[in-house]
Amino acid sequence: MVRTDAAGARGAIPPAIAFTEDAAGARRYGRAVVEAACAAIGRAGRPLHAAEILEVLVGQGFTLPGRDPVAALNTRLWKRSGPGGPLSRVGEATYALAPPDPEPARGGPVTQT
Q: pTM for the full model?
C-alpha cells in the first residue's frame, strides 16, 4: 500500500505492529498515521472530525486497532495536539493543523547605519 503526503510525495505505509511486539515499529506506524491525518486535514482545507479523518486513512490502507477505531484515532490525534504538536484540537474529536510557531525572539530591533 502506498500513501501520499501533503506535498504529494509517496511512501509505503509501514505495517501495523503491536507495541508489545515491536515498540519502534509501532511508533513508526503511529507517526505515519498522524502524518497522513495532517495531510488529509491539509487537503480538506478545514478542520476534520476524527471519523472523517479515519475514512480518508482507511481509504489509504491504514488500520487502527480496537472495537472503536474512531476513538483510537481520536486518542492518537489528541496526544499530538498539544504545544509544539502538528495538530490543534478545535472541538470534540475535531482537529485542524496547528498554526506555525512564531519565530523566536532574537534580540532587539535591527537598525542599519
A: 0.74
Quick check: 18 and 67 in contact, CB under 8 A? no
DSSP string, 43-68: HHTS-EEHHHHHHHHHHHT----SS-
The SS3 assignment for 97 reads strand
CA pair distance 34, 77, nearest whole angstrom: 7
pLDDT of residue 22: 73
76-112 tens-digit pLDDT: 999 999 899 999 999 999 999 999 876 655 655 555 5
Number of neighbouring beta carbons within 10 Å of residue 112: 3
Q: Amino acid identity of 21? A: E
Q: How far apart are CA 56 and CA 37, in angstroms?
A: 8
Q: Which three cell numbers stand for residue 78?
A: 489528541
In this predicted model, which residue has the larger pLDDT, 62 or 7?
Answer: 62
Strands (E), the chain: 2-4, 10-12, 48-49, 87-91, 94-97
